Amino acid sequence: MRAAVGDRLIVESIHSGGTGRIGIVVALYHTDGSPPYHVRWLDEERETVCFYPGPDARIEHRWERMPESP
């Protein structure tokens, strides 16, 4: 898993009926984009300074969300 600052980190719920979490990667500790990440969670007013994503997590890259130019 590789991320860049500004990418979304999406953690799916492993429990039936549970909700996942979405965070924004705000800092990297390795230049190659490998974990751990400093993540600001959108559903809570807190950050995780050293987050290691598990198998239930995926990265949504910032450039994948950017609208196409006309």
Ends: how far apart?
Answer: 31 Å
What about the largest sheet?
A: 5 strands, antiparallel
- Cα radius of gyration in angstroms: 13 Å
- Structural class call reads mainly beta
Order of helices and strands, N to C? EEEEEH
Helix content range? under 10%
In the sheet with the most strands, the strands line up as: 4-3-2-1-5
> How would you describe the shape?
globular
Number of helices: 1
Q: Segments where pLDDT lies below 50 for 5+ residues?
A: none
Number of domains: 1
Question: What is the chains' assembly state?
Answer: single chain
DSSP summary, beta strand count = 5
The proportion of strand residues reads 35-45%
On the 0 to 100 scale, the average pLDDT is 87
Q: Can you describe this structure in just a few lines?
A:
The protein has 70 residues and is mainly beta.
Task: Offer a few descriptive terms.
single chain; mainly beta; 70 residues; 6% helix; globular; 5-stranded antiparallel β-sheet
Give me the secondary-structure topology.
Layout: E1 8-11, E2 21-28, E3 37-41, E4 47-51, E5 57-60, H1 62-65
Antiparallel strand pairs: 1-2, 1-5, 2-3, 3-4
Task: Walk me through the structure.
The protein is mainly β. 6% of the residues lie in helices and 37% in strands. It has a 5-stranded antiparallel β-sheet. The longest helix has 4 residues, at 62-65.
